[in-house]
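thought: user wants a sequence for this fold. calling inverse folding tool.
action: design(structure=
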């Protein structure tokens, strides 16, 4: 991959070993390393230990007295933010790739490990090592799907890179943190994004095909916090579709893989900083988790506009309805039973009266936790005991979901619900 104006190794694309097939796996790359057996202690889908890793990474696990930490993981502060000069081609304003560029500009890292678009399919993520700040422009924007990011850790070491920044989604960051010590990097900066409802790039193309007669002209897609999907097209047109009018009923029941229906970390709790949009009410939403995360923000200086996140509306009704729909769908996609005329009215009302800002983010985390419990209970009940952390049981408790016999490691089946509970 050589790009105009960049040196030959500005973006390094090492060749990859084959993946070892695993059940419940998003091919984070660990099975392609020298020691694929490490999956056993690194995988989010086997026996994650969030309290231990949160303590290792942030110096403490979530504080029960800070309610929002039960939803979003440990943090020092949350910020609503945007770059004053948005970067062209970025998913939002480009905070993530600008942090990467600043790390390279200031010489804080040797390389940034992240995903570039496949030259033949812009929606397909390809793991790369970026070594020049200008080259971060080439990796802006979101691809749909997962790819073996962590398979590039060994090639990075072989090239003598000892100070690395990694931009990753939660299932990649969990495995990275579980193995961080043995990887032996001198310095590691972890910039995380939230992630949910991911699927394979192939299946994502099926979704694009339903959204437009010319799906190949779609250049951008985002599920926004105002309950609309935004599409941008090659000719500059923009289309906004209310969630309720998406052609979900035409998708096959297995559109979302079991991994992405049941993963337990929406907000990337082990990153130094999480950069998302869910709590941002139209702007980006930063969760600064530790001093390294603070260091990353400070690299942006005056380029960053910051304000306090807002919160409005009540999530209880939305989450309760989601739970009922998910139960009713029995493994298919949760469709809302509603006549078309009502769909339009509710679609208009939701951004105005539904949960907004941090309340929207809490609602999404609760919905994800509900999905984890219901889908594992139906499809992978034996996994529940080791895969569902206590904080997930606490998040779903206000909605009447409780561990049944054999579903939780500890003997008790009652879990203290999160404070500020929804019910
Ligand atoms: C699959 C996926 C689902 C997401 N879901 C949510 C969500 O539900 N809620 C929310 O608040 N935020 C979500 N995000 C994050 C959000 O879409 C933005 O990426 C984030 O807010 C950063 O915006 P930005 O303008 O700063 O990013 P940019 O500066 O444009 O940088 C984006 C970075 O993400 C990397 N990237 C792109 N695609 C992938 C991929 N498939 N896997 C790993 N890395 C990738 C790029 O390489 C680049 O480094 C999701 C991101 C992904 C990749
Ligand atoms: S650690 Fe990564 S490669 Fe291994 S099973 Fe888990 S997701 Fe798959
Ligand atoms: S939804 Fe979860 S399992 Fe799927 S790619 Fe995102 S973080 Fe990984």
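)
observation: tool returned 423 residues.
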């Amino acid at each position: 991959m050589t790009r105009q104006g960049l040196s030959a190794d500005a973006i390094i694309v090492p060749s990859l070993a084959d993946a070892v097939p695993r059940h419940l796996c998003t091919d984070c790359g660990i099975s392609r390393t020298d020691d694929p057996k490490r999956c056993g202690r690194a995988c989010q889908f086997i026996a994650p230990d969030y309290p231990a890793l949160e303590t290792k990474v942030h110096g403490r696990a979530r504080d029960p007295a800070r309610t929002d930490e039960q939803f979003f993981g440990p943090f020092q502060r949350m910020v609503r933010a945007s770059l004053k000069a948005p970067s062209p081609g970025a998913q939002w304003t480009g905070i993530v790739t600008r942090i990467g560029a600043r790390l390279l500009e200031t010489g804080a890292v040797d390389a940034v490990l992240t995903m570039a678009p496949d030259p033949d399919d812009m929606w397909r993520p390809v793991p790369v090592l970026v070594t020049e700040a200008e080259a971060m422009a080439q990796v802006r924007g979101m691809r749909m799907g997962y790819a073996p990011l962590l398979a590039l850790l060994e090639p990075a070491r072989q090239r003598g890179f000892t100070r690395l920044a990694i931009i990753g989604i939660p299932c990649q960051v969990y495995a990275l943190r579980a193995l961080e010590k043995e990887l032996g990097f001198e310095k590691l900066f972890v910039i995380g994004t939230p992630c949910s409802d991911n699927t394979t790039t192939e299946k994502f193309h099926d979704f694009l095909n339903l959204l437009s007669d010319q799906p190949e002209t779609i250049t951008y897609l985002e599920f926004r916090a105002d309950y609309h999907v935004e599409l941008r097209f090659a000719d500059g047109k923009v289309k906004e579709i209310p969630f309720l009018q998406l052609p979900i009923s035409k998708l096959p029941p297995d559109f979302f893989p079991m991994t992405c229906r049941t993963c337990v970390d929406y907000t990337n709790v082990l990153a130094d900083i999480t950069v998302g949009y869910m709590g941002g009410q139209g702007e980006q939403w930063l969760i600064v988790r530790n001093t390294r995360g603070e260091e990353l923000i400070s690299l942006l200086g005056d380029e960053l506009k910051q304000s306090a996140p807002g919160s409005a509306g009540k999530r209880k009704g939305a989450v309760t309805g989601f739970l009922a729909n998910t139960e009713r769908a029995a493994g298919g996609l949760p469709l809302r039973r509603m006549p078309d005329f009502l769909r339009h009215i509710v679609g208009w009302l939701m951004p105005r009266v539904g949960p907004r800002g941090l309340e929207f983010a809490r609602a999404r985390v609760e919905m994800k936790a509900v999905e984890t419990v219901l889908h594992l209970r139906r499809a992978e009940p034996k996994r529940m005991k080791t895969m569902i952390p206590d904080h997930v049981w606490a998040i779903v408790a206000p909605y009447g979901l409780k561990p049944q016999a054999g579903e939780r490691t500890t003997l008790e089946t009652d879990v203290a619900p999160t404070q500020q509970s929804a019910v």
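thought: summarizing for user.
answer: Here is the designed sequence. The chain has 14 helices and 14 strands.
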